[in-house]
Write a structure and sequence with these properties.
By secondary structure, the chain is an alpha+beta fold. It is built from three helices and four strands; from the N terminus they run αβαβαββ. The chain has a single domain, classed as YhbY-like (Translation Initiation Factor IF3), CATH 3.30.110.
């Protein structure tokens, strides 16, 4: 689990990122979760936007994605989800203690 301090740090880091994935009408599926896992391994911190036509609630989508990709949910703000997962090979982000 991330501490409040670590979440604040990650939110600040994510601020300038653009969303890489979009969740639309199809909702969350296995293929999307697999792709998000791969990208998290490469980047550690990503933003995902939820489109207007998505049938599911944004908190449900955030939970499905974070559980599926085994990532930490940093925040859900508006229709944007921020996920973090420490990379095994490409560790770039040093979290504060």
């Amino acid at each position: 689990m991330l501490t409040g301090k670590q979440k604040r740090f990650l939110r600040a880091k994510a601020h300038h990122l653009n969303p890489i994935f979009q969740v639309g009408k199809g909702g969350v599926n296995e293929n999307m979760i697999a792709q998000i896992s791969d990208v998290l391994e490469a980047r550690e911190l990503i933003k995902i936007s939820i489109l207007q036509n998505c049938d599911e609630d944004r908190d449900t989508v955030a939970e499905q994605l974070s559980k599926g990709a085994r990532a930490e949910l940093v925040q859900v703000i508006g229709n944007t989800i921020v996920l973090y997962k420490e990379s095994r090979e490409n560790k770039q982000i040093e979290l504060p203690r």
